[in-house]
Amino acid sequence: MARTNFDMLLQAGCHFGHLKRKWNPAMAPYIYTERNGIHIIDLHKTVVKVDEAAEALKNIARGGKKILFVGTKKQTKEVIAEKAASVNMPYVIERWPGGMLTNFPTIRKAVKKMANIDKLMQDGTYGNLSKRELLQITRQRAKLEKNLGSIADLTRLPSALFVVDVMKEHIAVAEANRLGIPVFGIVDTNSDPKNIDFVIPANDDAKDSVEVILNACCAAIAEGVEERKVEKADEKAADAQAEAAADEAKPKRTRRARKDVAAEAPAAEEAPAAE
Asked: What pTM did the predictor assign?
């Protein structure tokens, strides 16, 4: 599993927190010092927390479950999309659709609507529509794609949320908390870590900072997925061996049964003669 180290985090600027006057006292255990009015995060603690989060994410991925990445901040959303897509996980980088988790069936209906539009366009059903009607449908499809395209494959609730900037994405965090879905979060010095199950104290504003943490977490997820594939292959091989062994044993049992029948036959014939 790819691990982060102190120097990697330092070079990426993960240690830069917010202005001292904007801090959240709950983040005090993760703050090393203050310089020029800015809080400096203790990267030794960040290294430990990244490793803890990565190990937990790996176990979730090994179980074949989905992790939803959330981050709508302009400067980091591209890297979030790239890293989540690299491990085939769903992500939300546009506006968080309210009720996405707590009202999941409605979101699934919207995703199905998008699929239906595609199907009707391909089979020529929309061929007789006017240009104006076609334009309206195309716009509707584009809007659905923008907001929900990245979660089209999410057929059930995710098993975990990975959030970049837990203060900005507080609605997503609240929904996950309500449903008991564990939350992994990059938490800056101005945020409250109280509702986050796996806190990663770090700069959540800089692209480099978010990227170095996501690199480690997504590498762990990829490792978990790979281990699952190996386990599945081993299970199939074991099942095939057991099946082959069972098939091999069948003829032997049949021959043995025939011998037993042959041995009993003379006795059966002699019985009437005795009378």
From this structure: 0.82
Amino acid at 143: K
- In whole angstroms, give the CA distance from residue 12 to residue 208: 5
Quote the CA–CA distance of 224 and 67 in Å, as a whole number.
12
CA distance 85 to 92: 11
- From CA 38, how far away is CA 97, in angstroms rounded? 33
Q: Which tens digits make up the pLDDT trace of 22-38?
A: 999 999 999 999 999 99
Distance CA 186, CA 80 (A): 12
State the greatest distance between any 2 C-alpha atoms of the chain, in Å, as a whole number: 116
3-state secondary structure the chain: CCCCCHHHHHHCCCCEEEEHHHCCHHHHHHEEEEECCEEEECHHHHHHHHHHHHHHHHHHHHCCCCEEEECCCCCCHHHHHHHHHHCCCCEECCCCCCCCCCCHHHHHHHHHHHHHHHHHHHCCHHHHCCHHHHHHHHHHHHHHHHHHHHHCCCCCCCCEEEEECCCCCHHHHHHHHHHCCCEEEEECCCCCCCCCCEEEECCCCCHHHHHHHHHHHHHHHHHHHHHHHHHHHHHHHHHHHHHHHHHHHHHHHHHHHHHHHHHHHHHHHHHHHHC
Q: Say how many CA atoms lie within 13 Å of 123 toward its Cβ.
A: 6
The residue type found at 128 is N
Chain segment 88-132, per-residue pLDDT in tens: 999 999 989 889 999 999 999 988 988 888 888 887 777 778 888
